Amino acid sequence: METSGLGWWGVLIAVIGGAIRISTPFLFVSLGECLTEKSGRINLGLEGTLVMGAMAAYGVSYMTGNPWLGVLVAGLAGLCLGILHGAVCGLPRVNDIAVGIGLMMLGTGFAFFLGKPFVQPKAPTLPAFQLGLWSDSPQIQAALQINVLFPTGIALALAMHWAFRNTRFGLIVRVVGDSADAARAMGYPVNSVRTLTTALGGFLAGVGGSFLSLYYPGSWNEGLSSGQGLMAVALVIFARWRPLHCFLAALLFGGASALGPALQSVGISAGYYLFNAAPYVLTLIIMIATCSTRRTLAGAPGELSVVR
Amino acid sequence: MSPKFPHTARRDFIKQVSAVGTLSALSPAFIRQAFAADKLVVGVIYVGPKDDYGYSQAQAQAAAAIKKMPGVTVVEQERVPETADVQKVMASMIEQDGASLIFPTSFGYFDPHTLKMAEKYPEARFAHCGGLWSTGKHPKNAGSYFGYIDECQYLNGVVAGHATKSKKLGFIAAKPIPQVLRNINAFTMGAQSVNPAITTQVIFTGDWLLPVKEAEAANSLVDQGIDVITMHVDSPKVIVELCERRGIFVCGYHADQSALAPKGYLHGAEWNWLTPYSEHVKAAMGKAPMNNFLRGGLKEGFVKTSAYGKPVSEGARKNAEGIKAGMMKGEFAIFKGPIKDNTGKVVVPPGTVYKQTDVVLEQMNYLVSGVFGKV
Amino acid sequence: MSSAKSDALPPAYDVDASATVNEIRRFAESLLIPVGALAAALLLFGAFMALIGKNPLEVFILIYKGGFGSSFSWQNTLQRAAPLILTALCVALPAQAGLVMIGGEGALVLGGLGAAVAGSALSGAPAAVALAAMALTAMLVGAVWIAGCGALRHYRGVNETISSLLMAYIAIALFNHLVEGPLRDPRSLNKPSTLPIPDTHMLGTIPGLDVHWGLAIGVLACLILQIWVRRTVQGFAVRIVGGNVRAARLAGLPVGVLILIACALGGAMAGLAGMVEVAAVHGSANASLMAGYGYTGILVAFIARHNPMAIVPVALLLGGINASGGMLQRRLDLPDATALVLQGMAFMMVLASESLYGRFKIFQPKGP
Which residue of C58, C330, C331 to mutate against B (max B Cβ within 10 Å)? Predict the structure, then answer.
C-alpha cells in the first residue's frame, strides 16, 4: 500500500484511468449505434439494451459461475431487443426514434423486473490484466489495469473502420443507409439489412452493459446506468459515424466523467455539480463548434432521420 | 425474496380490503370502525428499490419482521418519488388498503407530503423516518423516528484510526446535508481520538445512487494515498467491493457488507429499524398515544455495529469496545466542546456537551477540523 | 416507400370538413386502432404475468381498480396525469415544426427554479400577482432553454435531439448547484431547497376534486395549443415547416422564426409544468422536481401522435397505469418495474399499430 498521495498528478492519473475504465461501455454502445445508424436507422433504445445486458450478464454469471457466459447472454439479450426494434421499425410509417424510446422503457422495465434477485449476491466478475507493471506506482498500475473487453472494443473499432470501406457487407450497409431507393434498385433488401444492423448493434450494446455489471463498477443495481446508453447515441453523431472517432469520443467522455471526483480528491470541492457536468458541456461545445448548416455532415448516412 | 401470502389468503384479503375501500367511500364512519378492529394494516413507502442492499432494504427488513407479528398486515410500495405521487400513495394505502399506520421512509416525504396527509387523515398515524417533528407546529398523528447512527460512525472512525498507515481517510457521500455531515464529523473525530493528526477527505457525488461516480470517487481517493474509506450513499456495495479490489480497508454503512470484502472490511454502521417500527406498531394496536419524536442510538437498539473484521487489531477492538460500552451506558458524548470547524471557527464552545438527543445536532452545517471538503 | 423518411412527424391527418360521415370514419379509425393496440398490449402483459405465476385476471382487475375503479382512483390517476400533459406539449409543439425535442426535463427544473425564486421574492405581493409572475418567469426560462436548442439546430445545424438531451443534463447540474449552493435556504436541513413561497401563494386544489390546479392548466393549454396548431395561420405555417423545410422556404415562410416559436412554446409549457410543481406541490424548488416527468412526457406526446388534444387522454392512460402500478405492488408484491413493463408494451404496440392506418376499408372515406 502506497502511503504518499500524488496531488495533481493523481488528478491526471485518475482522468486517464477513468477514461480507460469508464469508456468501455460507451465504446461498445456507440459502435453498435454507429453500425445501426450507418444503415439509415437510429436506435435510441440502446439505454434499455445496456441495462438489460448488465442485468442478464450479472444474473447469468451468478447462476453459472462463468462471467464469460454472462457476456454472451448479455449480447444475445441485446440481439433480441435489436431484432424487436428492427422488426417494428420495418413496418410502414413507424417512427424509429419513438420505437427507440419504447424499447428503452421495455428493456429497463424487464431488467428491473427480472433483476431483483441479483442485487444482493456477489457474482464472479471478469478478470483484469495489468499493463502498468513497468511502473512502481500503485496508482499507475491501478489506472492501467484493463479488462479484455477494452482492447476488444478497440479491435472492433478498427475492424469496423476497415469493413465499412473494404467489404461487401460494409458497402451494402452504407448504400442502404445513404439511399434506400438506390439499394432497392440494386436488389438489396433494405429492411432486412437494417434489422440485421440493429440486431448486431443491440448485441454490442448488451456486451457494453455486461462490462458495467461484471467489471466496472462490477455490480448490478437499478442505478447502474446513469444514461450511458443514451449518451453513447449522442457520441456517434459527435464522432461523425466513424468507428475510430467513436473510440476517441468514448475516451474523452470517460476521462471527463472522472474529472469531478478526481478534483474533489485533491480538495477542489466547490461546484462539484458543475464539474460533474463536464462531459455534457464538452460534448455540446464540440458539437456546436463542428456543426454547420451549410454542408451536410461528412459521413452522415443520407437516410438517417436525425440529420435531415 | 420476501415471503408470499398463500394464494387464498391473499384473495380473501383483497376482498376484505376492497370491501373496506368501497364502503369507506360511502361512510366515513366505517373507516373508524375498520381502524377499531384489532387488525392493523401498515403501509411502508420506499424512495428506492426495496432490495437495494442499503438504505431502503434496511427499512424493508424491519417491515418484513413486523409482517410476522400477529394481526399485522403490511403493504409496501417502492421507488415512490417525493412528489404529489407519494401523497397519493399514502392516501391509497389508507383508502384502498385500510392502512392506519404509514411509514414514509425517505426524508423528502416529510414536508409537505406527510404533513398534508396527516391533516387530511386524522385517524391514521404517520411515522416518518428522519423528519424534525416539533410540538405545536406539526400534527399529532404524525411523528418521526431516527437512529443516532453517528455513534456507529464514530466507532468506525476509531477502528479506522487504528488501521490507517497513511493517516488519511476517505468519506464518499451523496450530499452535504446535516445527517451526512454528522456522520462525517463523527467518523473523523473517532479517528482523531486515536491520533489527532488523522484527516478525512470527503467526496460528494451529488446523488444517492450513482455507482459509476462512486467507484470513480473511491479510485481517486485511493490514488491520493487514502487507505480507509467509508460512505453515506444509498447502496454501498459498489464502494465496498472496489476498496477490496484496490486492497484498502473499508467501513460499511446501512447494512452488513462484510461478505463483500473479507480482507478489508473493518467495521460497519447498521440500522436496526425494527425497534422503532415495533414501538409504533404496538402503540397503534394498543391505541396508545403516538410517540411523535422517537430517537435512539446503540443503547436503545436503533442502530448496531457489524462484527469486527479480520484486520482489526486487538488494541483497536479493545479501544472501540470501551467507547461502545460508554455509549451503551449513555455516558459518552461525541459532540463535546471545544470543537472547531475546518475553517477555524469554534462550533461547539469549550464546556458545551451536546447530548445525542439534542436537535442542534440534527441541524449540523459544518465539517470539523481535519476534514477536507466544503459544505 | 421509405418509412424512416416519410414521417418523422406527420400532421396526424388532414381535416376534411366536407363530409361528416368521412370525418366519423376517420375519427373511428384514430380511436379504434390505438384501442385495439392497447388491448393487444394488455393480452401480452397478461401472458407475461401468467408466465411468472400471477393470475392475469386478478392483475387486470387490480389495474382497473387502482386506476379507474372508484372516484378515489380516478383522482389518483388525474393527479398523476397532470404534470405529464404539460411536459408532453414540450415534445408535441416542436414536433409540429419537425423537431424531436427530448430535453423537456431541463426546461421543467429550471422553470421550477425560476418560479420558486420569483415566488419567494414576491412573498409580500398579492397572491395573484405573485402567481402570475411565477408562471411568467417559469415560462420564459423554459422557452429560452428549449428555443436555444431550436436555434442551435436551425442556425448551427446541431441535432436538437442530442443537444436538448445534453442541455437537460446541464440544466440539472446547474439546478443542483444553485439549489445546494447560492440559492439554498439555510433552514432547509436534510433536503436542500430554495426559500419557500408563502402558503397563501400556493395553488390549491380544484373545487370538488382532490387534484391540484395543474390539471386544469394543462387541459386548457392543450385546448389553446390545439387551436393554434390547427386553426391559425401561424400554426399551419409551422406544420408546413415540419412537413417539408424546402417547400416552406420556397413559399417564403420565415423558417427560423417559426422553428423558434414552436420550440419556445413547447419550452414554456415545460417551464410551466415546473412552476405548477413548485406552486401546487413543493412550495420551493428542490431535487424532488426531478421526478422524470419530462421524460415520460416524450412517451405521452409520441402516443398522442403530437396532437395536443390527444395528449389529455394519453396522459390519463399513463397516469392510470402508474396509479394501478402501486396497487399491483401493494396487493401482489410485484416490483415497481411492472408498470414500466406494461407502459413499454403498450407503447410498442401503439407504435406498431401506426402501420395499420389506411389498411381497413371501413374507415376510408367514400366518394369525393
Answer: C330
Within 8 A of A233 by CB-CB distance, chain C residues are: 162
Using a CB-CB cut-off of 8 Å, the residues of chain C touching B132 are 189
CB spacing of A261 vs B213 below 8 angstroms: yes
Q: At B347, give phi and psi (nearest 5°).
A: -105, -30
Please provide residue B204's backbone torsions phi and psi, each rounded to the nearest 5 degrees.
Answer: -95, 125
Query: Number of A:C CB contacts under 8 A?
Result: 166
Pick A119's closest partner by Cβ from B51, B220, B245.
B51
**Per residue in B60-108, pLDDT tens?**
999 999 999 999 999 999 999 999 999 999 999 999 999 999 999 999 9
DSSP-based helix, strand, coil % in chain A, nearest 5: 70, 0, 25
The C-alpha cell at B70 is 400477529
Q: Rounded to the nearest 5 degrees, what angle is found at the Cα of A32, between the Cα atoms of A26 and A38? A: 125
Q: Tell me which chain C residues have a C-beta less than 8 angstroms from the C-beta of A198.
A: none
Residue with cell string 390539471: C215
CB-based contacts of B40: which residues, under 8 Å, 6+ apart?
Answer: B71, B72, B73, B100, B101, B281, B284, B285
pLDDT in tens, C162-209: 899 999 999 999 999 999 999 999 888 889 999 999 999 999 999 988
Four-residue CA torsion sign, C20, C23, C25, C28: negative
Cα B152 to chain centroid distance, Å, stands at: 12
Chain segment A138-196, per-residue pLDDT in tens: 888 888 888 999 999 999 999 999 999 999 999 999 999 999 999 999 999 999 999 99
Of B14, B80, B365, the CB nearest to C331: B14
Give the integer Cα–Cα distance in Å for B247 and B245.
5
CA nearest B373: which of B211, B168, B165, B197? B168
**Which pairing describes strands B339-340 and B346-348: parallel, antiparallel, or unpaired?**
antiparallel
The residue ranges of chain B whose pLDDT is under 70 are: 1-38
Give the residue from B2, B227, C193, B252 showing the smallest Cα distance to A5.
B227
Q: Which of residues 211-270 of B touch C (CB under 8 A)?
A: none
C278: nearest CA partner in chain B: B83
Q: What is the DSSP string of C105-171?
A: HHHHHHHHHHHHHHHHHTTTS-HHHHHHHHHHHHHHHHHHHHHHHHHIIIII---HHHHHHHHHHHH
Judge contact between C278 and C201, C-beta under 8 A. Answer: no
Show residues of chain B in contact with A140, CB under 8 Å: none
Which class for A240: exposed (0-12), middle (13-18), buried (19 or more C-beta within 10 A)?
middle
Cell of B57: 432494504
Single pTM value for the model: 0.90
Per CB-CB distance under 8 Å, the chain B contacts of A17 are 219, 223
CB distance B205 to B237 below 8 Å: no
Alpha-carbon Rg of chain B, whole angstroms?
Answer: 22
Instruction: Say whether C283 sits in a helix, a strand or coil.
Output: coil
Establish if C72 touches chain B: CB-CB under 8 angstroms. yes
C4/A contact by beta carbon, under 8 A = yes
